[in-house]
Write a structure and sequence with these properties.
The chain contains 5 helices and 57 strands. The chain is mainly β and about 800 residues long.
Length: about 800
């Protein structure tokens, strides 16, 4: 059944989807070479699920290769990366790492087999020998597969078929020599399409898919079986086709990760702390897997006595082995255990302009306490009373963020939605000092089960107002004294020093649910076809796809829609004349694009209801001693001469011919002022007091109603495209650009709106002011086949 769903219904639906279709972020990770342990010690051992010792092989036919070296200038701020230098006299040979128990793994011989390999790589070029450089391989005696970098820097995957043929595919864009780059290879043997980006071989560079130079379909079961171990740092056994470069965070998965999951791997360069409460072998642990090394300290000392320690529970939200339980001293206590993150005093202060932070966590809230207890419960905090922040759950279940400003004020924002007691929920909080104003994309942002959750009060950009707190970050409580303790459970706690995108957060939440169905957001209310465009945009952007709107006329169920702080997104109708969005708020922009990059809106029209014009027909003209009185009767179906409308007339009023409906020449524009030169007789009859104009009885008068909303309002955004769009009515401009940068594109038509219900006359105006304002903008604007000829009927 389709139809509108309330926020609570959506949260229930998402919760069910999480329960039954959860996709773990680290799905099927067999091997992971991070090149340091949780305490910051250099190592090339794997922390993946496959147990065994990684072997360093330095024995090549060119002699003993150099040993593996470690570099503390890693791409993700971890303690170490690995450098694998080639033999000085012949860099075609170099050290390689042999993965344990890998002979029979990732052979890719079955049509259903899948694989993802992701890593950071610093390619040092082809060298004097102009050599192909190997990343990983499972290749022996002309059997198996290998992944390399060509002499010109492109990623290349080669496989040997069971018919003794060799196939390969290469990506279009080369890597930059000497620069850290995140690269990913996806093999999907039963890929459904022949494609440069979605076939059986896929490459990603820095989290985004990179097209092949030649398309690829499904691989099937053609790869010849290679019963040989997987090697890292070379393409072949025998230490040949060596990398002669550096690697970090090498991961092997026996599944084809989604584009969203791959982007999250790239974003992990900003992951400073990660408490998953289990290691790769599913043993319970408090260790952090993030980039900051050190020991997580468990603190059970509270102001009310020693609490119980953090407990481990196998009741988890994501099918993992363990979560952490943070009990309070008693059911009526505000104190409990906390976890102190290592080396966190100076981190994530979010006190400078440009700083950002994301806290993402699974939480099971056990309530505010029993009896007369009514406690706020802490998720995490960095607070000393004079500075810092903390994230908590209010007694009624809202997620809240509180911080202390540098002017000694305490600010707080919380969600409208509430958590359900005793139920696992994924919660994310973003602090972004550069974000714009809003209840969803301002300086404080919340997400519940992967979807943006509006604030109860709007929030602007933070700048540098948060006062610094030289305190460690506490998990499971808000304060270092373990006050405002959680009284609940946590899992998969992540702290990033960047603002994650909605798509990244949606992925962390397990990508709940199937792809959106636009019909779930379309419904009928009082005979009008409505669309919940704001919420469907939240989900569409979280899923990382464009949003396609069907043909039809749809009233927006909110006062405008904001596309704020988003990147690479397209909102597409079914055609300028097929998809019409109607706004019923004259002082709100229908579409606001703020602080965004590469947003496209295309193939749709914007209308306003009611059309903001009092228009009528002249019924009598009287010469009153030099001041002429023009009696008129308003047109039905349009706004009438109410006191409210009389106070909002625009200065661009004018006359139209009663014969052909066109703007009367040589009569100019006049400023209509209600109660001064426009006299109200009743709602449908009025008088205009003006000098001689030459108009006749039967001619028409248009009195536009002033408003402050634009159909399209672009502000502080980069490279915005409005393509094949139309404006049918506006209380002000058609489109406004302020502080725009990049390459902007506009193909827009201003045209007459359909005649309103009950009307017998066509609209005389479309926009009540300019078609376009492009002001205080450093970017370029390309205007392509724009037609503004119907700002008034005179030019139609």
């Amino acid at each position: 059944m389709h139809g509108i769903r309330t926020l609570s219904q959506w949260l229930i639906w998402i919760g069910l989807c999480v329960a039954f279709s959860f996709q773990t972020v680290d799905a099927e990770m067999l091997y992971q070479l991070k090149f340091n342990d949780t305490q910051g010690n250099a190592t090339y051992q794997s922390t993946g699920s496959v147990v065994g010792t990684v072997i360093l092989d330095t024995d090549s036919i060119a002699g003993t290769t150099p040993d593996i070296a470690y570099d503390n200038a890693s791409p993700d701020q971890t303690a170490w990366a690995a450098t694998l230098p080639g033999v000085a006299t012949n860099t075609y040979y170099g050290p390689m790492l042999i993965l344990p128990d890998s002979n029979s793994r990732l052979q890719l011989t079955q049509s259903s087999d899948e694989m993802t390999i992701a890593m950071w790589v610093k390619w040092n070029g082809p060298g004097t020998g102009n050599d192909i450089r190997g990343l990983v391989g499972k290749w022996a005696s002309n059997l198996g597969w290998s992944w390399s970098i060509t002499t010109s820097g492109q990623l290349s995957f080669m496989l040997r078929t069971n018919t003794a043929a060799t196939w390969s595919r290469t990506c279009e864009t080369p890597l930059i020599e000497g620069q850290w780059t995140h690269v990913t290879l996806v093999i999907d043997n039963d890929a459904l399409s022949y494609s440069k980006t979605a076939g059986g071989i896929q490459f990603y560079i820095n989290g985004k898919v990179e097209p092949l130079t030649q398309g690829m379909g499904s691989i099937g079961s053609i790869i010849a079986l290679a019963d040989t171990p997987i090697v890292v740092g070379t393409a072949f056994a025998g230490n040949s086709r060596a990398l002669n470069g550096s690697l970090d965070d090498v991961q092997f998965h026996d599944a084809a990760l989604t584009p969203a999951q791959i982007h999250l791997l790239y974003t992990a360069q900003s992951l400073r702390y990660h408490l998953d409460f289990e290691d790769a072998q599913a043993s319970a642990t408090l260790d952090s897997q993030g980039s900051v090394p050190g020991i997580v300290v468990e603190d059970t000392a509270t102001a009310a006595g020693t609490s119980s320690p953090v407990l481990f529970t196998n009741s988890t939200p994501d099918n993992s082995g363990w979560a952490a339980q943070f009990p309070t001293l008693s059911a009526t206590s505000n104190y409990g255990p906390g976890l102190e993150l290592p080396d966190s005093n100076a981190r994530l202060t979010v006190s400078e302009d440009g700083d950002a932070m994301t806290l993402a966590v699974w939480v099971k809230w056990d309530g505010p306490g029993s009896g007369n207890s009514n406690f706020t419960r802490g998720i995490a905090g960095k607070w000393n009373g004079t500075g810092g922040w903390f994230c908590s759950i209010t007694p009624s279940g809202q997620v809240a963020m509180t911080f202390r400003t540098d002017t000694a004020s305490t600010w707080s924002r919380q969600t409208v939605a509430t958590l359900t007691q005793g139920q696992w929920t994924h919660v994310a909080m973003v602090l972004d000092t550069t974000a714009t104003t809003g209840v969803t994309r301002g300086g404080i942002q919340f997400y519940i089960d992967g979807i943006m959750s509006p604030l109860s009060q709007s929030m602007g950009d933070l700048g540098s107002i948060i006062a610094t707190a030289d305190m460690p970050i506490i998990i499971g409580a808000n304060f270092s004294s373990n006050g405002q303790a959680l009284n609940g459970s946590l899992d998969d706690v992540r702290l990033y020093d960047t603002a994650l995108s909605p798509m990244d957060i949606y992925t962390l939440a397990g990508a709940p649910g199937d792809s959106l169905d636009i019909n779930d957001y379309i419904y009928t209310d009082n005979g009008k076809q409505m669309i919940d465009l704001k919420n469907v945009l939240y989900l569409a952007y979280a899923q990382g796809s464009q949003l396609q709107l069907p043909a039809g006329t749809y009233y927006l169920n909110s006062a405008g829609v904001g596309l704020n702080n988003i990147t690479d997104f397209t909102l597409k109708g079914s055609g300028m004349d097929e998809t019409i969005l109607v706004l019923d708020h004259a002082d709100t922009a229908a579409m606001s694009i703020t602080g965004s990059h590469n947003v496209t809106i295309k193939d749709l029209s914007i209308n306003l209801d009611p059309i903001p014009i009092v228009q009528g027909t002249i019924t009598n003209i009287t010469d009153n001693g030099g001041q002429w009185i023009y009696d008129f009767t308003t047109h039905v179906g349009y706004p009438q001469l109410t006191p409210t409308n009389m106070a909002r007339f625009h200065g661009c009023s004018c006359f139209f011919s009663g014969t052909d409906g066109r703007l009367l020449p040589n009569h100019g524009w006049f400023g209509a002022v209600g109660g001064s030169n426009v006299i109200r007789i009743d709602d449908s009859h009025g008088q205009l007091l003006l000098g001689p104009t030459g108009v006749s009885v039967g001619d028409k008068i248009a009195l536009p109603i002033r408003g402050y909303g634009f159909p399209f309002n672009i502000k502080s955004s980069d490279s915005t495209r409005l393509e094949n769009v139309a404006v049918l009515a506006s209380s002000s401009l058609a489109v406004s650009y302020r502080y725009a940068t990049g390459e902007n594109y506009l193909r827009m038509t201003i045209k007459r709106a359909p005649m309103p219900a009950g009307a017998t006359e066509v609209p005389l105006f479309s926009t009540n002011a300019d078609g376009l304002n492009y002001i205080a903008s450093s970017g370029t604007l390309t205007m392509d086949q724009c037609d503004f000829g119907f700002i008034v009927l005179a030019m139609g």
